[in-house]
Amino acid sequence: MAANGSTVLDHGVVLRALRSKTTTLSLDNTKIDALPPSLTKLTFLTKFSAKNNSLTDHGLSPTLKSLTKLCAINLGCNKLSCLPVCFMEMPELQNIHLFSNEIEQLDEDVLECLTEVIVLNLNGNLIDHLPPAIASLNNLTTLGIASNRLKFLPQEISHLSSLVELHVEDNQLQHLPSGISQLKKLTRIYAQKNKLQSLNPLISCCTSLRVLDISSNQIQFFPQELGEMKLREFHYELNPLIPFIPIPSSATEEVLPLKELICRRLFTILENDSRLEVIVQSLPEVRDALAQAGKCLVCDGPFVNSWLECVKFIQAKKIILPLRSPSGLIPIRIMLCSYKCLNSGDHDYYGI
Ligand SMILES: [Zn+2]
Q1: Domains of the chain from N-terminus onward
Q2: Residue 352 CA, ligand 1 centroid: distance in Å
Q3: Distance from the CA of 337 to the center of ligand 1, in angstroms?
Q4: ipTM metric
Q5: Which residues does the UniProt record annotate as the domain Disease resistance R13L4/SHOC-2-like LRR (predicted)?
């Protein structure tokens, strides 16, 4: 910090705060790279902001450590490379804004101490993974980790049971983890500008979800479960969706592997004769194979490991609550047991 800047701050803003016993202090846009030492006297502060400066990790310590009563801190737009360790000694911290810094990794020990945090804003950093310790933040309602380098989200995200809003846009995510299905309060997911190749069907278990943005990904079609969701906003533009251009199928009946044929036959027999259930339960390999069985939407027959990937097209406004519904057709994934069923013509499913 420049000597002049230090003097101005020590004798200006900080001293005024000391006299008035204010609980809120802003050092935004003050061009500092270190916190003024006099800040250590403001132990009664509950809200502190020093965004839009050049603060480094070294420039925070040991001054920040004195502010143990902080509930909210905003250090956005600085040059921090990690979560400040002194957060571990701020038990009342609820709002943390560290957007637009240079953070690469999240220290697990620090994360484990952030159990009271409600808002964590880490947008615009260099983070390539969320450590499992993220599970400690069970009061978190808003997690912002957009515009980072995430390739995946950990299953431990399922422990964020209070989460309402998730910002993971502009990363490199290839899928959303199944654990997301545990988040019953989750209302808004922003996952645009990633590398999602499909939408996890379990997202339909997020029963509070109303806003889903998965635009600018690599999705070709959506799971059937999309129709069960009560979305008010669904943004899916700029995905390579399968277009509605029907062409006649020239495929004939396929030859199925023997294992598939046996499993399908077994499944049908079991449906009609439950006495065989006991035998199947004693054969783990058969039991596991049959547990994965799906049902053909044309003939209602079973399939296990071999099926025909198809789509049906439905109007977007049938999926999204009308308020701001887009128009157009959305391809939904359908699985059929065979070309015979696809070619039967008694349906509006299309092979892909
Ligand atoms: Zn069929």
Answers
A1: 3-235 (3.80.10.10), 258-351 (no CATH)
A2: 16
A3: 4
A4: 0.98
A5: 132-236
